[in-house]
Amino acid sequence: MKRNICKLLIFSAIIYLASACLGKEKEIEYSDNPYFVSLKFGKNDSIPGLAKAVFTLEYDADLNDSIIVNLDSLPFQTRIDSVFPTFSFKSTSYAYLLMTDSMGTGLDTLVLTGKDTIDFTKVQSITNYSANKLVSRTYPIKVNVHQIESELYVWKRLVNSIYNHSSNAQQAVFFKNRFLFYASSDSQNYLHVSDDAESWTDAAVSGLPLTGNLRGIRVFQDKLYLVHENGLIFTSGDGENWSSIDPAVAGYVCHNLLFVLENNLWGLFKQEANQAYYFANSEDGMQWVIQDAIPSNFPIVDYASLSFGSRTGKPKAIVMGGRSSAGTLLSKVWSVEKNIFNEYKWVDFTANKTDMEPFSGASVIPYDDKLLMFGRMDNSDNIIGNGRMESIDEGLTWRATDSVFNIIQDTVQHIVYEPRAYQSVILDETNHFIYLIGGRNKDVQVFSDVWVGKLNRMYFFE
Q1: By CB neighbour count within 10 A (0-12 exposed, 13-18 middle, 19+ buried), where does 434 fall?
Q2: pLDDT tens per residue, range 235-285
Q3: pLDDT in tens, 187-244
Q4: Residue 346: beta bridge partners?
């Protein structure tokens, strides 16, 4: 009996303690932190790219406040009138947007439910209340959308005509912070110089014989180099005073220059005994080393050439179009770089391909992770296509540039660039400007105008 009474007392005590604990609920503490964490735009199939907007909290000196903003603007013409936003805060009981009203004259408030479609062209700010409903924080909101088409090239004609004298050959180079524009007629060499490509003055040229090979001028180790038809190499340290160098390679005559690659000037030499052409390179522009014979169907004149750094950081060069030693107009695109054995090997990018027409008179530059080619003439001296092509794979394949985004015209002066080849193309790598100087067309009309252009997106990084 006593044992049963003890069990009853113990059981009663347990029931009492349990009841006491349950009757005393722990008080919940709600956060007083209303601060912003993130904003994301949901995917909208009718507005591509909207979900890629990245918002951060940035200090705005004009407002003297922190602002929710996407520093990397959305693409041109991206709509922000139908947005599914997701806001995140340290804590929240509710939040509302302050928006321009439908009349555009006043303000409305909209309490967010998490299922809202918002016209962010009208949003001015968001106010969030902490979970305990005692503290609030208001943030201005700005959604940046590019106001200009980022992929559009904008062009302007700087100069209508640099000179009025006759010429049958010309070439412009940027050398020692000056634009130098050489022109040659049957009786005289001319030089026109400029600091900005807009204001030009005449300068005297001495020591340079008359030559039709002005397009062969190359910049190497703070000097200009040019091969004359007699096989001598002419060089200048200031662009005005020239002197000759005899390459003095027994049994060979220098024919043309190709490019500068890995601190070497590369050229073409002709062996006098068998009339075959060979690659050659020089570390100083004076002493030359003969290399391999050029491949079949490799150009010796009228080609476009360029050396540049590949996406993997390797120096490489390409040679395109031009005429072979037999006078055949070529469509070939040749590429050269060192292989794993530290040897220079040439690759024919156009082997077994028929998508490139034979051409001459082109110029090529690296730009915006692409290669841009300007001016191509066929065997009848007609300009091919719109005169411009681009490659996104370092010269392996080529396509016509977009006729909507890259048409060369001055919309202010209402002037369209006349199609041509053999123009000089100079890239300002610091400011991303492209200069087009001179050139000629099928009717042997020689131009001496200057155009400058730039991809709109390049302005965004300045």
Answers
A1: buried
A2: 999 999 999 999 989 999 999 999 999 999 999 999 999 999 999 999 999
A3: 899 999 999 999 999 999 999 999 989 999 999 999 999 999 889 999 999 999 999 9
A4: 336
CATH superfamily of 153-461: Kelch-type beta propeller (2.120.10.80)
Strand partners, 68: 57, 141
- CB distance 143 to 70 below 8 Å: yes
315 alpha carbon, distance to own chain's centre = 18
The gap from C-alpha 146 to its chain's centroid, in whole angstroms, comes to: 18
Which amino acid, 302?
A: D
Using DSSP's 3-state secondary structure scheme, residue 459 falls into helix
d(C-alpha 50, C-alpha 78), whole Å: 7
Strand-pair partners of 62: none
CA–CA dist 365, 401 (Å, integer)? 14
Whole-model pTM over 0.70: yes
The two three-digit tokens of residue 384, written as one number:
């091919």
Return phi, psi of residue 47, to 5°: -130, 85
Residue ranges, comma separated, of all CATH 2.120.10.80 domains in the chain are 153-461
The answer to whether the CB of 141 falls within 8 A of the CB of 69 is yes
Topology, domain 36-142: Immunoglobulin-like (2.60.40)
- How far apart CA 129 and CA 35 sit, in angstroms, is 9
Q: Give the percent of the chain with pLDDT over 90.
A: 74
The CA-to-CA distance between both ends of the chain, in Å, stands at: 96
Both tokens assigned to 202 = 């005449």
Q: Would you state the structure tokens that stand for residue 342, as one six-digit string?
A: 């530290």
The Cα 375–Cα 356 span in angstroms is: 14
CB 266 within 8 A of CB 258: yes
* Segments of 42-93 assigned E as strands: 56-60, 65-69, 85-89
- pLDDT at residue 458 in the model: 77
User: Where do the CATH 2.60.40 domains begin and end in the chain?
Assistant: 36-142
Residues paired with residue 192 on neighbouring β-strands, in sequence order: 181, 202
**Which residue, among 58, 106, 50, 103, has the nearest Cα to 81 in the 3D structure?**
50
Residues 6+ apart with CB under 8 A from 311: 369, 394
Check if the beta carbon of residue 288 is closer than 8 Å to that of residue 249: yes
Amino acid at 63: L
Separation between Cα atoms, residue 232 and residue 234, nearest integer Å: 6
User: Distance between CA 426 and CA 218 in Å, rounded?
Assistant: 13
